[in-house]
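Q: How do we represent a protein-ligand complex in a form that can be generated token by token?
A: Start from the inputs.
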Amino acid sequence: MHHDEAGTGTPLLLIHGFPHDRTLWAPQLTGMADAARVIAPDLRGFGAWADLPDRPVLTMEDHARDLRDLLDALRIERAVIAGLSMGGYVALAFLDAFPERTRGLVLCSTRAGADTEEGRKGRQATADRVLREGTAGLAEELAPQMLSAATRTARPELIADVRTMIARQRPAAVAAAALGMARRMDRRPMLPGIRVPTLVLTGDADEMIPDTESRAMAAAIPGSRLVVVPDAGHLVGLEAPQAFDRAVRSFLEPV
Ligand code: MLT
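Then emit the structure tokens for the protein with D-malate bound:
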């Protein structure tokens, strides 16, 4: 599994969202290297993966197993598992499957529930579309929605960066991940039983997953900490790296 790594100390596994790659976490690789061993992998099929996904559907559990294998390869027994959006769905799947490998959890711009019926139809449409026409149109549409209005105005170059990141992903991987998200289970019932330290982090201007989802998750997870970053959108670590890093840093201290 391709990954970037920086720093030493508590292993912090950063899982990108859909349809991103490990470069989403570039600010954290520099900004958090003095506070943790930061590890940012490409999920199967994304980023530097040379081959196409070997199956038409990549489930959250498939990604979780890949990440367990990565920790094995790096000889890391337990890591803080941090995921943004789809990465958060993967983080919950990881905790479910490998609680003994989970030192803590950071759930960022994500939700615990499953897709609605309408949402599933949308995933199928996304998969069909990218397999038919490639990822450029999806990138054009998603990139601005993933940033807050404030960021779009102040840093328009970030829209182009996110658009480029999405456009370079392989259609087969994007389709397989979309269909995997459509099949993901409702993990809300597991929230009250979570016993690892958990940080729930979101931007208050997230247009993809409203901050109400994060507030609900934080309320359901015993002892969790909630941080809502003002004026940040879906890609909070990229848009507001200082606020993101500060929140994760102070969470990591006692973990
Ligand atoms: C993501 O950023 O991973 C997506 O917004 C997740 C989703 O489409 O549910």
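The CA atoms of residues 46 and 170 lie 7 Å apart. DSSP finds eleven helices and seven strands in the chain.
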